[in-house]
Amino acid sequence: MIDTHCHFDMMPQPETYIRQKERAGDIVIGMTNLPSHFQMGCPHLKGYKHIRLALGLHPLLAAENKTEIPLFKRLVDQTSYIGEIGLDFSREGISTKKEQITVLREVLGTIQGRNKIVSVHSRRAEKELLSLLCEYGIKNVIFHWYSGSVDLIPAILERGFYFSINEAMCRSKNGQAIIAKIPKDRILTETDAPYNKCCDISKTLESLCVSENEVYENFKRLLAAIV
Question: What range does the domain containing 204 cover?
């Protein structure tokens, strides 16, 4: 199983969780919401073969944590994975729109030209986020739990980007409409656990009519792009 977007650092017993996943041979990319969270988590992952930690600065935390931008810049070369980053212009985040864009520009400027795999949050800000990713020439992007317009999907695919799909998306009408527009060679799987309770990857694969091997081949292709 491949989980390209989860938050095991936010789970009640993260070390137990990642040990179980490691024993199962599952590949898990743990997102972080702040650079300081990444800094705290890194020492706990030494020796793991399949578990990785991404360096993030979540858009809903960006405005009040701008002081962590220098830390993000110091830590950026400690991992090949960036996330969770992005924009959120939903009711929850619209009041900090300007600050989010400012922080994201700093983040994108930092990873520009570096070989990273980047997981992005794009709620109600899909066009703006895609425009910024293009402006900074960011590659190897995964749109996590995409919920935007299906009309924008071709432009995202044209950039060579991927989409990570979870069980909750497969269950919703909007999610199904989005999934129908994504070719199988651009699909990755995620849980977004513990925030998403509907996150069984086996059920996701069944709904998508794709195999574990097909998703693995997609992920392997993405990995090859950062070597």
Answer: 2-224
Task: Note the Cα 176 to chain centre separation in Å.
Answer: 20
pLDDT of residue 227: 82
Run of H or E residues at 173: helix 173-179
Which three-class secondary structure state does DSSP give residue 25? coil
> Other CB atoms closer than 10 Å to residue 156's CB: what's the count?
23
- Alpha-carbon span 42 to 55, nearest angstrom: 10
Q: How far is CA 9 from CA 40, 42, 134, 214, in A?
A: 10, 10, 30, 28
The total number of structural domains in the chain stands at 1
CA 224 to chain centre: 18
Regarding pTM above 0.85, the answer is yes
| Rounded Cα–Cα distance for residues 136 and 70 (Å) | 19
Give tens-digit pLDDT for 147-171: 999 999 999 999 999 999 999 999 9
Assign residue 24 the CATH number of its domain.
Answer: 3.20.20.140
Cβ pair 89, 128 in contact under 8 A: yes
CB 50 within 8 A of CB 28: yes
With cut-offs at 50, 70 and 90, classify the pLDDT of residue 76.
very high
